[in-house]
Amino acid sequence: MKEHQFSRRKFLTSMASLSAASVLLPFHTLAASDMHKVKITDVKTMVLQGPTTPYMRGRTHILVKVETDAGIYGIAEAYGSPGLGIVEAIHGVKAILIGKDPLQIDRLYTGYRYTDDSAHAQQRAMSGIEMALWDLAGKILKVPTHTLLGGKFRDKVRMYDHHTPRDYSDKISCRDWAAAAKEQPNGITIHKLGVPIIGEKDDFGFDPSNRVLSSKAMRKLIEGYENIRDAIGWDHDLLIGCHWQFDLRTSIELARNLEQIKPLWLEDPMPVPYSESWRRLVDASPVPICTGENWSRRSDSLPFIKNAATDIIHPDLRNSGGFLENKRMADLADLYSLPVANHNTGGIVNGIASVNWAASIRDYLFCETVFFDGGWMDDVVVHDKPLCENGYVAVSEKPGLGIELDPDVVKPNLVEGEKWWG
């Protein structure tokens, strides 16, 4: 009997070791092959001119390409406008990256201290390069990037958009918007609402130079949100997105007034940096509080997470380090039972990258998009069916991020003076 038990334990131990080793098998295989000798030969950019819609206001989208001597390359998207100096920062680190092993992603991102606090543009630049390296690694190993990040928890990722009424105060405008929202071909059913311009100081006691709303301005704002909820019903979800506009007391009052329309979250009502006021807001708010799009690294998220000063973390991959740094941030949030969503006002390349990353995050909610709507931006990447269906984007099973650019769409939409990969 003892001999049998010993044999069984030995068998289980061997199987566990085999299972652990199998996770690293692609890397061991790579180490024993000529592909291990792949080196970075160039880092290129090209800048895409986005649509001139009212929300996007003609933003640009910076595409990044990391090339190797094996002819394999990775592509991703860095932060576009507002993005002063990001293209220059990408080209500024290129000389240091050339000749390096592209699979040493963490070392390339952190080991040479490109991402310290001295230059925000450099952090955004390295975030784009980091994601391109993950695309490249997946192509070298012939697996999807989400496999390298630990595997996927879901086959599709839910999206939310910025489809909003023209006039929150006009019930007819809200009803027209609701009808259009329900007919969108992409099927998205989560809509982020901004804080519209309420009026001038003389009309509502609203002074745009401070962070306080008068009672009259607050009532006007809430009436607009109530119009929207009445028009859209309860089959669609709402988010309220601010841009760091309010002080603590106004944020608490806003949160309490929003309870009746039940938004999934109230986003960024107060200035970006952590303070005790964020914890006070979460404690007082009847609706979930969300923040994180302007964090640069996981250390920015730490005080919010450990002090229960947010209910949902909401990083942007292009701002806060790309895939690995944000996965570490999500793992930290998971220790405190906090879910994750993604801010994403990038182009279709970053949208697909965010979906690939989101697949690898256990407690994940949904991803922002201003595209995936069937417009020309969707056609920047080659696809044979709509990218977003029934409000979800399918997770690619192709190597890397599964992205192939269509030059016939990209070239006519480049910023003036830009050329196809320079």
Automatic annotation (TrEMBL):
Record key words, sorted: Lyase, Signal
A Pfam family assignment: MR_MLE_C
Residue ranges of domain Mandelate racemase/muconate lactonizing enzyme C-terminal in the record: 174-288
UniProt xrefs under InterPro entries: DgoD-like (IPR034593), Enolase-like_C_sf (IPR036849), Enolase-like_N (IPR029017), Enolase_C-like (IPR029065), Mandelate_racemase_C (IPR013342), Mandelate_racemase_N_dom (IPR013341), TAT_signal (IPR006311)
Signal sequence region: 1-31
SMART domains xref list: MR_MLE
Superkingdom of origin: Bacteria
Name of this protein: Mandelate racemase/muconate lactonizing enzyme family protein
